[in-house]
Amino acid sequence: MSELFAPLLEWFRVVFVEQFNAWVLLGFVAQACFTMRFVVQWIASERAKRSVVPIAFWFFSLFGGGMLFIYAIQRQDPVFIAGQGMGLIIYIRNLWLIANERKAAMAQTD
């Protein structure tokens, strides 16, 4: 049985121990931040009993996506770079639209 698991354990050691450095740590922190956007959205939706996308979702998307974009550039992964790069444009645009909406609402109350 140990003959079956030995190659798997060796793979885990190489991938998670030997390759561990500050860039991998950044990648994990970035992924955790990016994942928080789903947690925030889920909690907000559960509280409202309907689908809700709070502004924090877009900020977690931007910060997590930005760090993942940097990580992808360092890893020189063109698929990851393209995916995160396009996402950043969408996150910034959504935050811009929210800011404009808030400005318009403030102007109406004045």
From TrEMBL:
<dbReference type="InterPro" id="IPR011499">
    <property type="entry name" value="Lipid_A_biosynth_N"/>
</dbReference>
<feature type="domain" description="Lipid A biosynthesis N-terminal">
    <location>
        <begin position="26"/>
        <end position="97"/>
    </location>
</feature>
<keyword id="KW-0812">Transmembrane</keyword>
<dbReference type="Pfam" id="PF07578">
    <property type="entry name" value="LAB_N"/>
</dbReference>
<keyword id="KW-0472">Membrane</keyword>
<dbReference type="InterPro" id="IPR014546">
    <property type="entry name" value="UCP028440_lipidA_biosyn"/>
</dbReference>
<feature type="transmembrane region" description="Helical">
    <location>
        <begin position="79"/>
        <end position="99"/>
    </location>
</feature>
<feature type="transmembrane region" description="Helical">
    <location>
        <begin position="20"/>
        <end position="40"/>
    </location>
</feature>
<keyword id="KW-1133">Transmembrane helix</keyword>
<protein>
    <submittedName>
        <fullName>Lipid-A-disaccharide synthase N-terminal domain-containing protein</fullName>
    </submittedName>
</protein>
<feature type="transmembrane region" description="Helical">
    <location>
        <begin position="52"/>
        <end position="73"/>
    </location>
</feature>
